[in-house]
Design brief:
The protein is of the alpha/beta class. Helices cover 46% and strands 14% of the residues. Helix 3 packs parallel to helix 4. The chain starts with 9 loop residues before the first strand and ends in a 7-residue tail after the last strand. This is 3-hydroxybutyrate dehydrogenase.
Amino acid sequence: MFAKFLGGKTAVVTGSNSGIGLGIATELARAGADLVLNSFTDRDEDHALAESLAAKHGVKVRYIQADMSKGGECRALIEKAGSCDILVNNAGIQHVAPIPEFPAEKWDAIIAINLSSAFHTTAVALPMMRKSGWGRVINVASAHGLTASPFKSAYVAAKHGIVGFTKVTALETARESITCNAICPGYVLTPIIEQQIPDQMKTHNMSREDVIAKVMLQRQPSGEFATVDQIGGTAVFLCSAAANQVTGTTISVDGGWTAL
């Protein structure tokens, strides 16, 4: 889709050893960016993943462990990266429960990882971008950053917060060659979603096809999952010259969910 126009740029992608984060990292590497992968684990396979991406795409790739629930570690991630031309705030977790039954510790963790981490990483990355004269901040929000569902109070609050934080970041950098935008995916076919399908089949006594159509994609008018490649391609577009004046906005990749 894009030539290697990101050669010489370094992208830091939080929560990127699987799923959407890995999809975004892969597409950025395909476009020539060097990468810093991240998650809270520090396993041999995490580092092997970095080596594999580097070999496949001919870029430099490092894996740096950091717990995104801890502000100090969020900031240390960017500092250890050394440079950060592209920051993708992707790390996130979920918990579903009615508000009176929602565990306080789950609320705190979701707000910390899904929202506060983006503040901490951005605070350290922006001076680096200003020094180099160019930067892109891409926040992975959600359709739930624009609308809501019951029983997802912390997630919806955090994702709405990310959309607001995106706008503030864009306004503070509007006169510079730095942009900030939020990608708002609907349901994306990731390994986590794949793992949920058999359980949903048992719970609802439905076939795989019916679970996908009637349960998971009920609010996604296209009737199809988005893919991690599509989310990655959207991120690459936001790093291109075509998106120089795209800032402070949301891009929905949700099969029409938020058009309802």
